[in-house]
Amino acid sequence: MKYMETLYTDSTENQANAWIGLYSISGKENRRWHWSLPGVEFNAEEMKWRAGEPNDAGGHLENCAVIDSSSQLMDFGCSNDFTFICYNEQNTSLNFIDNKKKWREAQSYCREHHTDLASGAEQLNEAVSKFKSSDEPLLWIGLFRDTWRWSDGSNYSYRHWRDVGELPEELSESDRGTRKCAMTELKKEGKWKADDCNTRKPFFCYGDEKFILINESKNWDEAVKYCREHHRDLVSITSLEQQELVQEKAKNANTSHIWLGLRYSCALDLWFWVNDQLVCYKNWANETDTGDCNLAVAMETGGEHKWFKKNDTEMFNFICSLS
């Protein structure tokens, strides 16, 4: 990817690695499923798991998925060996690879010789139809889960790990407890490794984003305080363009709503944004009339991303403005 090329070709002689904005949240309950192919969004409703799957059989972490001839999925430890299916974006073809590899090795092979492992419901349906006669009962696909998050709140699935040893189940218990942040190796094709977050390293920033999703649940006042201490302010939406940008961020929240910087003033009998902008653009799901002095506004993270009146003591994720 061009972005990764920029990171490691701009390195200097005395820099071995640098922090990137990827970090891990401990606990297997914090794992999320992703597709290996960037840009393919995971939709849990499209997944057809075998009965009882995914199940982390035997108490082991099973963070990669296979598909069988009936289009059903199973979770397996990523260090198992299976044949696999690659997707080639250039000619939109699916390619059965009759060579058993571990999941990460299969992913590397597909990225080197094609585009990526087969990803998404549409590709899987085509793959099962095309390779149903294969003697192999189970095939790796590009479905994996991990505990890693991007610090800007985005849900990008792209991973560029150095080796299989960086997969969560391959790390020792002590390493999983300390190696929670990702760095890029500036001298080795920009591959990633995990390290202790307290280690001092150079790092990369980017500044084309206007907003950041904070995946922490706070009440409205706490959200305002956090944004003002760490960024600029709780987000204000004054146009359709800003609404669309914010709702894209909101899709990756882990609460049903996210706080916006809009609050009702009993003294003035009006709604106001924290940045003192007038309420010109509106996206209400309900009436704005109120008799309650403790109301603020939260956007739903799904559906039409409408705005709802909420008691300001409720606990939601929130979005901060960066400028």
From TrEMBL:
CDD domains: CLECT (cd00037). PROSITE patterns: C_TYPE_LECTIN_2. SUPFAM superfamilies: C-type lectin-like (SSF56436). InterPro entries: C-type_lectin-like, C-type_lectin-like/link_sf, CTDL_fold. SMART domains: CLECT. Residues 1-87, 82-206, 206-321 form the C-type lectin domain. It comes from the Eukaryota. Pfam families: Lectin_C. This is C-type lectin domain-containing protein. It comes from Oreochromis aureus.
